[in-house]
Amino acid sequence: ALAGGLALAECAFAAARAPLAPTATGTAGPAVGEQQVVREVASLVPPADRGPPRGRRIARSALPEASLLLANTGPTPAVVSEAFNVITFLPQYLWLLMVFAPGWSVTRKIMEPLWPVLLFSLVHLFIVFTVASTNDDNLADFTELAKVFDPRVSLNLLNDFSPQASMMTLMKSPGFVSEEWSHVLAWDLFVGRWIYLDGLRRGIFTSHSVLFCNLIGPPGLLLHAATCLLTGKGLPGEESTAAGDASTQLEPA
After folding, report:
1. Which string of b and e fits 17-30 if b means at least 16 CB within 10 Å?
2. pTM value?
């Protein structure tokens, strides 16, 4: 569309500069070159936009195109931006403690309770509630989000990429970005804390796994699982399950 518009503009500019040829009455008229420019301009116009079916064009423009259901791109309230900063930067102090001082008594006192994760989960909930209550077009956002999880795509996973396109559309919304970012950070902290506590409980080095969990999420969990296997500790949860099964077998009938 952009290339076609540029071509039309160049043709129009050429037409404006075309010399006027004298006519039989002595007045200047369009030169032959200008007529050629007009024909070239007409050839650049798509047939669907050239023909007379004006009623069909009006009917088509009256129907909402799926691509027009964009997310709200307006700025978020200041409190959402402040909450965004809170959940982005404050958890980093907890990550530093778990990575660089995992055995420190202060780190254990802070991270063993669930309260830090619950606190930042509340920040996420605050962002979601505030964005939803101030968004003037929630229906469009939910419509676009529903396309991300369209169950029909599961029948054509290798060819239908519309969910990714819908997600990219939603990412144009500052409100949606704030919700998703706080969502990711809260869950990363939950998993990182779990890895840290599993390391304390079973004597496994976890600083590298916790660091990767903070940086890129799931690979940190995979790294912890690999560490557990390489050290002969077994995957998380297997030890407690095996102990439970053994105690059950030892109970008298």
Report:
1. ebeeeeeeeeeeee
2. 0.66
pLDDT in tens, 209-232: 999 999 999 999 999 999 999 999
The C-alpha atoms of residue 82 and residue 184 are separated, in whole angstroms, by 17
Please report which residue ranges of 101-217 form alpha helices under DSSP H. Answer: 105-111, 115-134, 138-148, 162-170, 174-202, 207-216
Q: Write the burial class of residue 165 (CB in 10 Å: 0-12 exposed, 13-18 middle, 19+ buried).
A: middle
17-36: average pLDDT: 51
Q: Residue 150: which H helix or E strand, with range?
A: none
208, 122 Cβ separation under 8 angstroms: no
Q: Tokens 């409100």 — which residue?
A: 175
Pairwise CA distance, residues 85 & 120, whole Å:
12
Mean pLDDT lowest among 11-15, 61-65, 142-146, 243-247: 61-65
**Around 222, how many Cα atoms within 13 Å sit in the side-chain half-sphere?**
4
- Return d(Cα 43, Cα 49) in angstroms, integer: 11
- Angstrom CA distances, 30 to 11, 25, 59, 130, 215, stand at 15, 13, 37, 63, 68
Q: Which two tokens stand for residue 31?
A: 């030169």
CA–CA separation, 143 and 140 (whole Å): 5
How many Å apart are CA 20 and CA 61, to the nearest integer? 39
